[in-house]
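> example.struct
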């Protein structure tokens, strides 16, 4: 077994372990961090397949942007995990059925892809580069395919990502009882009369003098 095969098995084992922990971790933040590890291992496998553009895109787009957004959303929503676990066994039969159905569909697709079939047709750019002896760039060929033959699916994916961003922002705009939020526009429109009230009070009266004792009356004074 050479070094490349060993790295492939290493990345695959770590990827499967991280993917398993994504769905079994009790803390949503830990699940998101395990998903980041999964993306890194998948990027390493793509590097072994000489798809360096896809590997770099996976790290930059998903790990650097999407997963950071996931972490912010999870931390800002303040999800009550204990309350969600109360209905786990209630919804377990439906979740298990859907999971088994997805697993069967993926198995049908993967097993169909490993069957012996006719040799795939080489791309025009690959064939021309091989005949001319020029170094082939899969990044250039991928860009040509994305913006010519797969332009419409690319635009649909861009719209879906935009909807996801708007939905994530909308989730954070809900009002919280424990939040002391102040609207800046209301602060600007406040007048002095709204904050300060002048109350007129009567003037202070002088203290009346003590009454004097009449003549012939002796008063006792205590020390």
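> example.seq
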């Amino acid at each position: 077994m050479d070094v490349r095969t060993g790295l492939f098995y290493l990345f695959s084992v770590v990827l499967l372990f991280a993917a398993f922990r994504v769905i079994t971790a009790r803390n949503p933040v830990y699940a998101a961090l395990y998903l980041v590890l999964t993306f890194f291992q998948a990027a390493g496998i793509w590097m072994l397949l000489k798809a360096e553009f896809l590997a770099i895109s996976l790290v930059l787009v998903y790990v650097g942007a999407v997963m950071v957004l996931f972490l912010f959303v999870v931390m800002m929503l303040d999800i009550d995990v204990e309350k969600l676990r109360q209905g786990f066994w209630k919804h377990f039969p439906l979740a298990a059925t859907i999971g088994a159905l997805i697993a069967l569909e993926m198995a049908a697709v993967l097993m169909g892809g490993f069957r012996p079939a006719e040799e795939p047709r080489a791309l025009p750019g690959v064939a021309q580069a091989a005949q001319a002896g020029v170094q082939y760039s899969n990044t250039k060929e991928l860009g040509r395919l994305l913006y010519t033959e797969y332009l419409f699916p690319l635009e649909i994916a861009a719209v879906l990502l935009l909807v996801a961003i708007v939905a994530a922002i909308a989730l954070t705009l809900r009002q919280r009882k424990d939040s002391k939020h102040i609207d800046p526009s209301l602060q600007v429109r406040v007048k002095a009369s709204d904050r300060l009230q002048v109350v007129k009070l009567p003037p202070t009266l002088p203290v009346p003098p003590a009454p004097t004792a009449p003549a012939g009356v002796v008063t006792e004074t205590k020390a």
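> remarks
The mean pLDDT is 78.
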